[in-house]
Design goal:
This protein is of the alpha/beta class and 183 residues long. It has helices at 3-19, 45-48, 60-76, 161-175; strands at residues 25-30, 41-44, 80-81, 89-110, 116-137, 142-152. A six-stranded mixed sheet has the order 1-6-5-4-2-3. It is elongated, with a radius of gyration of 21 Å. It starts with a helix and ends in an 8-residue tail after the last helix.
């Protein structure tokens, strides 16, 4: 299995596993100099720039699910997506994965310094995935806000399309919970 295939499987698995909210951590950061109260319209980076990266290395249906989920959350927060004119901000997302290894040794014994007994070592390999959503201030042409979710990867291919959509919606809602800052 080549690296691209492993990463694709890992990313898809991460999205659904993270959406299930078990072991997922959410975080965000922002530029305190940005006045978020002036934002009302947005576009996707791909809509405003022909140079924007379109291939994120995930299945097209899952990419659409993520875009739809972001659109739903932003719309619920009062932002309007535009496809022409100049929006107040643009949004973009990307995904990263990283292989992790946990090694744990458990000692059992009795007597002086555990002299009788033994040790058992367990090695656990897993993939950590991170989904990042960026909000870029168009006037300043700079990153204004970034939210992300990080979690372990689980099986993806066993989910129905409806389960995938529900899980991704939950994941994106968690990421965008802190946007705009102070909300």
């Amino acid at each position: 299995m080549n690296r691209y295939t492993r990463q694709l499987i890992g990313v898809l698995s991460f999205l659904v596993a993270a959406a299930a909210c078990s072991g997922v951590s959410y975080n965000s950061d922002f530029d305190p100099q940005v006045d978020f109260s002036g934002y009302s319209t947005y576009a996707w980076a791909e809509d405003v720039s022909a140079d924007a990266v379109k291939d994120r290395g995930i299945a097209p249906l899952d990419e659409k699910r993520i875009i739809d989920a972001v659109d739903q959350v932003l719309s619920a927060k009062g932002y309007r997506r535009v496809t022409s004119g100049t929006p107040d901000f643009v949004t973009h997302f990307y995904i990263t994965t990283q292989e992790k290894v946990d090694v744990n040794t458990y000692y059992s014994g009795w007597g002086y310094y555990g002299g009788y007994g033994g040790a058992q070592t367990y090695v656990n390999q897993w993939t950590q995935g991170t989904l990042v959503v960026d909000i870029l201030d168009l006037a300043e042409k700079d990153l204004a806000w970034r939210g992300w979710a990080t979690g372990a990867v689980d099986d993806y291919d066993r989910k129905s399309p409806e389960q995938k959509t529900a899980d991704i919606n939950k994941l994106i809602a968690g990421i965008l919970k802190g946007f705009p800052p102070g909300s």
